[in-house]
Amino acid sequence: MKKILPYSRQWIREKDIRTVVKALRDDFITTGWHIEHFEEKLREYTGAKYAVVVSSASAGLHIAMLAAGIKPGDEGITTPNTFLASANSICYAGAKPVFADIDPETKNISPAQIERRITRKTKVIVPVHYAGHPCDMDAIHAIAKKRKLIIIEDAAHAVGGSYRGKKIGALTRSDMCVFSFHAVKNMTAGEGGAVVTNNEEWYHVLRELRSHGLTRDKARMEKHEGRWWYEQHRLGFNYRITDYQAMLLASQLSDLDSFIRRKRSIVKRYDEAFDGTPHVRIPVEKEYAFSPYHLYALEIDFNALGVSREAFMDALSKEGIGSQVLYIPVHTQPYYRKNFGYKQGDYPAAEDHYQRNLAIPLYAKLSDADVQRVIRAFTKVCRMFKG
Ligand SMILES: *Cc1c(COP(=O)(O)O)cnc(C)c1O
Questions:
Q1: Mean pLDDT of the region 179-184
Q2: For residue range 53-84, what is the model confidence (pLDDT) as tens digits?
Q3: pLDDT tens per residue, range 11-56
Q4: Which CATH number is 256-384 given?
Q5: Is the CB of 86 under 6 A from ligand 1?
């Protein structure tokens, strides 16, 4: 049995491990200086004014919604072509998740479709940079500005990417931006996330929400009885990460650009190998986009190939190649159907993309030989089923 190459995986190097071991020997393994150290690095990297590191992107999206004041009765617009967490975060705030269909070219939320879904209750737009490819932020920003809506970017796939030459997280066309450091994402601490913003008040609120709602900031207190004093002014959570995770993230961030360079060179080889393969469409990168390629997601017309996706994936698997379908359109989930009345057919572009979607292995640690293996296996499997 050949070792299966997964669709994505982390790259933890010896120097990362040494950093974590060092952090573990410190006096404080949580709420210590490493958290602020990594936040500083992330600010420098993205160009955002403030960064708050949290236990996951899901946690980050949740507190971003609360900091933005999203509440029951409000509506938030996001894409169906995403992981559950993007829409769940709107529900966490008690608001109604509303989907806007995707642009079939980029698979990202379509600005024209956003406009169609806006009501008097709409308060927030959550664009997701699918596979790392930035959304059409100029158009989304123009819509939000006209209607005074808040934009919270779900950049779980997009740390290290750029939009029109500005890093994702620079906040030139959004209010907050949320990153994920889950193990399959561009950089990782196993679990982890961050929210960046340029809004000082939101920054303080995000920090409080991360830790039970408590503050030790004298300027934000009613009184101060002594050095032990803290106050709670809102209901928060424990969404902290540990110091050794923050140290691992700082170490991973220093490698992020080289990881992305490596991934982009693999993408170039995949694109060249697969472009023109019958019934297979390679991903696009628009002129405004620099994608960190969290995923390499192809569109495959399985009907035309005369094979089920399951059988196609089995055949790849026999060649030692893992693959994955990302994502099942969120509005088709029982939770969203039962609670909000969505149904199959509501978002045809996202549903059509789902039928064709298949992500094949892409991560910085893939060797040249691995890349060759993927190309050979994928081409072989496509030929097997052709006709
Ligand atoms: C992974 C992911 C999340 C959630 O990230 P966690 O850090 O695992 O909570 C949110 N949105 C998208 C688009 C994701 O892919």
A1: 98
A2: 999 999 999 999 999 999 999 999 999 999 99
A3: 999 999 999 999 999 999 999 899 999 999 999 999 999 999 999 9
A4: 3.90.1150.10
A5: yes
pLDDT of residue 354: 98
Ligand 1 centre to CA of 294 (Å) is: 12
Give ranges for CATH 3.40.640.10 in the chain. 14-252
The CATH 3.90.1150.10 portion of the chain extends over: 256-384
d(CA 69, CA 74): 10
Across 163-175, average pLDDT:
98
Q: Is 79 in the pocket of ligand 1 (CB under 6 A)?
A: no
Nearest Cα neighbor of 156 from 246, 244, 61 is: 61
* Positions marked active-site: 185
What pLDDT was estimated at residue 387? 58
Residue with CA at minimum distance from ligand 1 atom 8: 182
Judge: domain 14-252, CATH 3.40.50.1980.
no
The kind and range of the H/E element at 289 are strand 289-290
Three-class DSSP category at 163: strand
Neighbouring C-beta atoms of residue 139, cutoff 10 Å: 15
Is 156 near ligand 1, meaning CB less than 6 Å away? yes
Q: Are strands 289-290 and 296-300 parallel, antiparallel or unpaired?
A: unpaired
Side-chain-side CA neighbours of 89 within 13 Å: the count stands at: 32
Kind of pairing, strands 289-290 and 162-163? antiparallel
